[in-house]
Amino acid sequence: MIKILVIILLLINTLFIFGDTINGTLQVKGYKNYYVNYKIANNSHSFGDPSNFYILLHKAYDGKLMNNYYVMGKISAIRGDKHSWNRKVLIEVNTATAYNTNRGFVKSRFEDWKLVTVRYKGDKYIALRANIRSTLYAIEFTGWAYVSDGELLKPVLGGNATWPNGKKISVKPGEQITEEKEFFTETENIYGNEIIKGSASINGNVLIGKANDTGQKLQVEGSVSINGTLHTSELVVIQNVWADYVFENNYKLRPLEEVAKFVKVNKHLPDVPSEKEVKSKGVSVGDMQAKLLQKVEELTLYMIEQDKKINLLNEKNEILEKKLEKLEVKK
Predict the structure, then answer these.
(1) Is the pTM of this model over 0.90?
(2) Together in a domain, 210 and 274
(3) Residue 322 DSSP code
(4) How many alpha carbons fall within 13 Å on the CB side of residue 69?
């Protein structure tokens, strides 16, 4: 009987421990303050300038040694039902200021939110510039945050704004956002597929498919597909095979008659891809450069052969001219 009572008491205690429901914000204070669903704003509105909405994270170093400030966690917001567009926002934030350094990193999925430094009421802040294209609800933060003074996760307007219905919002003088600069200091290791929509500012080298950094800004191990135009001031292609074999003694140069027949039938040079092949498969820049050099070197050999024949003909002409002169003298 006693055992049964103990089991019942344990079950009741378990229900009390794990069955509690907490409504609103949960805040645990200590050396690292932890927040659950810390409310930043009930909702936001779409403005005429969608990049005119900011969330101040914490103060930033501005020439004076700083205490410890940080925000490490996730900012979420929602929208969507049978009457409104399905929109879910999840922003991962990791920013900190201490001593004489500002460091920061932000990861934004499907939304073009940027990490910036701004000036607000005379103080420099690290902030999120939010892309508010339509109303968002329940903008909340979950994670660790600490600010000894200044604003913590405060939503502000950068300046005067206009709602789509024409209503204007004015910001008090002195509370407008000024001196905005994009801010990005940290690198990120990503495993798996990554899709970037919009602009991405990366301070450092980007390695794709490899771990050994060789110093170039973009390093890729594997194939790259670009559907568009690549603009570059210089292109270096490393080739394992080059066309100098054309000048080897055992290289068999096609007779010009054979080349002429091939061109007449196929409408392109031997060993060079046809227009149909290029349209369907594309062309390798390195291989094509090697083939073009092969044709230039073959053309050089043809010219050398033609030069030999021309010189031989000139010699024969000189002999014939001398014989002709002698015959004319005898007459």
Answers:
(1) no
(2) no
(3) H
(4) 28
